[in-house]
Amino acid sequence: MMNYVKRIAFPVLFCCFGSAWATDAKVIHLHYGVNQVNFAGAGAEGLAVLGRRENFNAHGFDVLTLYLKPKQTSNGAEDWQLVSLFDGQQEALTVNVGGGADCTLHDFRLVPANGSVSLIVADRELGTSFADAAPVKFKHYALRHNASSEMGHPLYYFELVKTSRAKRSYCDVGDAFEKELRIGPYRQ
Rounded to an integer, what distance in angstroms lies between the CA atom of residue 93 and that of residue 101? Predict the structure, then answer.
């Protein structure tokens, strides 16, 4: 009996719990309020501010803003810099998380990547209702440093580098993150 447990049960338990742990390890955990984030590749301190915009129905939403404090900017200032997102020429200053009581339609994950941080945003169309499954699109952003002070871009920003689609439709994009990318939730 003990051989059976060693050969069958332990590997099964390890597989189940190991994959949950591995999924959880890929995401940077955040809570409502100010979170310190290690933007090590940027050589700067980082903050992620997560807040809630309640509207007292099923459609309140969360808002994420990201900031970096470089050691020194080109003009000598040491100000906190807003880190925006660029999708081509379109700039977004925040990332919104929202949907309805049934499902989340828009969400994000900050993940460690190559000594820095990447951002993945998942979106799905409303479809017939909030509760319907629909295709999910993932937008992958890489952190960039505007070292040459190119006009129109901030000192640090996330640039869209890849778009992918989930293999199947989902009601909640959080499920798509977990099943398609193996990235768990960021809120603890």
Answer: 26
Count Cα atoms within 13 angstroms, Cβ side, for 174: 13
Measured in whole angstroms, how far is the alpha carbon of residue 8 from the centre of its chain?
36
Cα separation values, 119 from 18, 109, 125, Å: 24, 6, 20
Do 146 and 131 touch, CB atoms closer than 8 A?
Answer: no
**Residue corresponding to tokens 């890929």:** 26
Q: Which of 122, 115, 116, 114 is nearest to 140 (CA)?
A: 122
Distances in Å between the alpha carbon of 150 and those of 84, 128, 155? 15, 43, 9
Q: What is the pLDDT of residues 8-47, one digit of tens each?
A: 333 333 333 333 333 345 899 999 999 999 876 666 789 9
Can you tell me whether residue 138 is helix, strand or coil? strand
Pairing of the two strands 81-87 and 33-39 = unpaired
